[in-house]
């Protein structure tokens, strides 16, 4: 009781001093007390506010990284109170440190803690948020920079893997603020389910991995951190499925750019500025989507114009309204405006590679050319496993014989037959063999030039 009485007396004295002493003197005493406390404490403290400056406009990227990092390490084991959230379009539960609570971490054998502060601004509904980092004072010089680098690296990787991917398309309004509309991207295609030859699949995944991990390399050699892919092959060869598998493999957003909705080169640049990092920008049927004013190869002769009309028929009533020029598209792919973001992949697709202007697909613009065609035996076995759950079957020899004689079908054709007969594997394979033999009789050997290979 005597201790409590002394404590109340001390608190009463503090109250009297606050009412008697000038505010300037109180502030000075408070600063002196904090200095004494900092002198004798074995820890160093670092404040990380949500915004830089006092205007609350410039977001502090380090604060965002700390939030992501603490979510990635699952702080439930070291924090007494957490805020749990889950969006309606996601199955993932997000962790956030509750206001004025602490999370403990370790780095290089040292104990580190984060405290989340939330203060309500006086006479306002706004909140001021920050994190306080506590490090051992003796080791702060050796710990601070490496630890923050570790936090940022882990946060970026967690964001890349866990964030909801979106599928964007341009709305044709030409607005600099809302040129894209989006929906959640939930395409199920993966490299595991993709009907590709193993060697081609390995080449593509290795190239994508090297690109995603190549930030320091691209900066060191002075190149924009981007990559170009040209996918070509007949309809149904799996170009769209490959794009979806690439997006799922890298956890990138997808921007489906419809050039016929773009009014001019200026709007094309505006759309490029609005795309995010870690994204795949897709222009499908590059030889058909827009009548490029400098399409030298196809416009040089009447034969070229006739071939274009045959391979790229326009829907009834559709006009060629786009005024995007070849030079504008070239600047979009590798000009100065292509460097306005990082970690982007630009993908062109076409059914007829020979119809694409050579300037669009030269080295430096389209770095990787992927020829997709009819099913080889490895691709067929992948489809049979996906649709029928078969890894071997006596009919596989007949299928292999048809493939070797030039009667192979595209993955879409094979997939449709297997889907239609997925309840009867024998019937499905017999129908595949019948279709392949019919294809061979109709000149399938000539079309066998579509081989799944990387150029």
UniProtKB/TrEMBL annotation:
InterPro entries: AAA+_ATPase, AAA_N_dom, At3g28540-like_C, ATPase_AAA_core, ATPase_AAA_CS, Mitochondrial_chaperone_BCS1, P-loop_NTPase. It catalyses: ATP + H2O = ADP + phosphate + H(+). GO terms for molecular function: ATP binding; ATP hydrolysis activity. Residues 225-372 form the AAA+ ATPase domain. Pfam families: AAA, AAA_assoc, AAA_lid_At3g28540. Keywords: ATP-binding, Hydrolase, Magnesium, Nucleotide-binding, Signal. Residues 1-22 form the signal peptide. Its cofactor is Mg(2+). PROSITE patterns: AAA. GO terms for biological process: response to stress. Belongs to the AAA ATPase family. BCS1 subfamily. This is Putative mitochondrial chaperone bcs1.
């Amino acid at each position: 009781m005597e201790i409590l009485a002394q404590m109340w007396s001390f608190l009463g004295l503090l109250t009297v001093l606050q009412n008697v002493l000038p505010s300037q003197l109180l502030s000075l005493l408070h600063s002196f007390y904090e200095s004494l406390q900092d002198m004798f404490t074995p820890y160093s403290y670092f404040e990380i506010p949500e915004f830089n400056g006092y205007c609350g406009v410039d977001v502090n990227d380090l604060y965002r990284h700390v939030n992501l990092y603490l979510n990635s390490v699952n702080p439930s084991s070291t924090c007494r109170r957490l805020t749990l959230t889950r969006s309606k379009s996601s199955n993932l539960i997000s962790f956030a440190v509750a206001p004025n609570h602490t999370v403990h971490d370790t780095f290089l054998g040292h104990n580190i803690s984060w405290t989340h502060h939330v203060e309500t601004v006086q006479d306002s509904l706004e909140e001021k948020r920050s994190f306080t980092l506590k490090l051992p004072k003796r080791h702060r010089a050796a710990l601070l920079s490496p630890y923050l680098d570790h936090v940022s690296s882990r946060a970026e990787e967690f964001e890349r893997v866990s964030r909801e991917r979106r599928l964007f398309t341009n709305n044709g309004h030409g607005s600099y603020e809302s040129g894209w509309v989006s929906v959640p991207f939930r395409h199920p295609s993966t490299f595991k389910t993709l009907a590709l030859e193993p060697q081609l699949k390995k080449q593509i995944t290795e190239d994508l991995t090297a690109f995603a991990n190549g930030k320091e390399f691209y900066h060191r050699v002075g190149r924009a951190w981007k990559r170009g892919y040209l996918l070509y092959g007949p309809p149904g060869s799996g170009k769209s499925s490959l794009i979806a598998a690439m997006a799922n493999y890298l956890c990138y957003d997808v921007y489906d750019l419809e050039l016929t909705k773009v009014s001019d080169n200026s709007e094309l640049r505006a759309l490029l500025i609005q795309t995010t990092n870690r994204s795949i920008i897709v222009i499908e049927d590059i030889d058909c989507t827009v009548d490029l004013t400098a399409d030298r190869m196809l416009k040089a002769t009447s034969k070229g114009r006739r071939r274009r009309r045959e391979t790229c028929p326009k829907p009834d009533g559709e006009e060629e309204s786009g005024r995007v020029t070849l030079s504008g598209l070239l600047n979009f792919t590798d000009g100065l405006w292509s460097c306005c973001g990082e970690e982007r992949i630009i993908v062109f697709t076409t059914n007829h590679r020979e119809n694409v202007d050579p300037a669009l697909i030269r080295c430096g613009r389209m770095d990787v050319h992927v020829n997709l065609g009819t099913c080889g035996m490895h691709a067929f076995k992948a489809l049979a496993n996906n649709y029928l759950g078969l890894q071997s079957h006596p009919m596989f020899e007949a299928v292999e014989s048809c493939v070797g004689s030039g009667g192979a079908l595209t993955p879409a054709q094979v997939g449709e037959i297997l889907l239609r007969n997925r309840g009867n594997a024998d019937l499905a394979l017999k129908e595949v063999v019948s279709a392949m033999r019919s294809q061979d009789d109709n000149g399938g050997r000539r079309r066998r030039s579509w081989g799944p290979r990387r150029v």
